[in-house]
Specification:
Elements (H helix, E strand, L loop, with lengths): L1 H26 L3 H18 L9 H20 L26 H11 L3 H11 L4 H8 L3 H20 L1
Length: about 160
């Protein structure tokens, strides 16, 4: 049973790990913190995976846990990630996909996004991933209408940062 669960988890994560890297990129500003946050998100996903019932798309469920993990670690640690492992994940074998971008425009955009609040960062990231307002609301646990309002404010704030 555990072996089947691990295999299923690894398959889901392998397909969706870029999403975790995007979240890490938005909430960290160096490679070490990125890797630490990535590992912590994977750990939290693994701990929660037995409760995944498939009622929502895996990526939606994953987004919610990853964002909550990033935001709570970011707030607790005062803008640096400190990971504490409670379980051994060494039995889970997963290919690690490097996530790097060297383009100047993308780097500039990430620097501007780093200046946003935690929720604004999440909103902008989901907007860039073409998530619908309904999906954004589901992920953040807010109504679709509230997601629209918050998204509008986040986009306006990002525009004003870019104009400076």
């Amino acid at each position: 049973m555990r072996e089947k669960l691990e295999k299923s988890f690894v398959e889901y994560i392998t397909v969706n790990q870029r999403l975790v890297h995007k979240i890490c990129r938005i909430y960290t500003d160096n490679e070490t913190d990125h890797e630490d946050l990535f590992q912590e998100i994977i750990l939290q996903l693994w701990k929660s995976f037995p409760g995944y019932r498939g009622e929502a798309k895996f990526s939606t469920w994953m987004y919610r846990i990853a964002l909550n993990t990033a935001i709570s670690l970011f707030r607790k640690s005062g803008k640096s990630v400190q990971v504490q492992y409670n379980i051994d994940l060494t039995s889970i074998k997963m290919e690690h996909e490097e996530y790097k971008d060297d383009e100047e425009d993308i780097s500039y955009m990430y620097r501007m996004i780093h200046q946003l609040s935690d929720i604004e960062k999440a909103l902008i990231m989901m907007y860039l991933d073409d998530k619908s307002y309904r999906e954004i609301g589901d992920i953040l646990g807010i109504s679709e209408g509230n997601a629209r309002v918050k998204m509008n404010r986040a986009k306006n704030r990002l525009k004003s940062l870019i104009k400076k």
